[in-house]
Amino acid sequence: MDLFEAIAKRKSCRSLIKTEIPMGDLEKIVDAGRLAPSGMNRQPFEFIIITDPETISKLSIVQGFIRDASAIIAIVADEKQSKYWLEDVSASAENMLLAITALGYESCWVEGTLLRKEEEAKAILNVPADKRLVIFLPIGKSLVAGSQAIKKSAGEMTYYEKYGQRQRP
Ligand SMILES: Cc1cc2nc3c(=O)[nH]c(=O)nc-3n(C[C@H](O)[C@H](O)[C@H](O)COP(=O)(O)O)c2cc1C
Question: What is the pLDDT of residues 92-103, one digit of tens each?
Fold first, then answer.
């Protein structure tokens, strides 16, 4: 899939159905995360590929729809490695969401609900106390067609040359 097609097609899917996902696809997705830019190239992120149905079910304490995921990629961050750690994990998450879309799967960036259950989720995944567990990407196929959330138009958020100048030069 062309990059711009993947950007346009990516959407948050919270109605997943189980599907077979080859480990090769999951590793390809993680590789897209690994290759993301990071402040001063510190790469303060690590990834956990989760396919065990029992673990996936336990992790649905974070958000109910996660129980229907066929796999979850969890992003672990080391806050001490870089002051840009949150930007860095975000860049890796978006790279992975685009890779997931390009491979024909669905996902959703799960962070808000994870932060409320971070300690419980860390215990389930044996994440060390001094590391952060920041983002889950549950992966599967979509139960419903769905579409990306409505976005503001380019005209509403784009200026040319100077802030406030909407006319193209
Ligand atoms: C930082 C961040 C945190 C998010 N946390 C959650 C979350 O905890 N649960 C959830 O269902 N969606 C979460 N989302 C997904 C957003 O709700 C979603 O991206 C937004 O509504 C736009 O929809 P779209 O992804 O279809 O474009 C999060 C997205 C971002 C970027």
Answer: 999 999 999 999
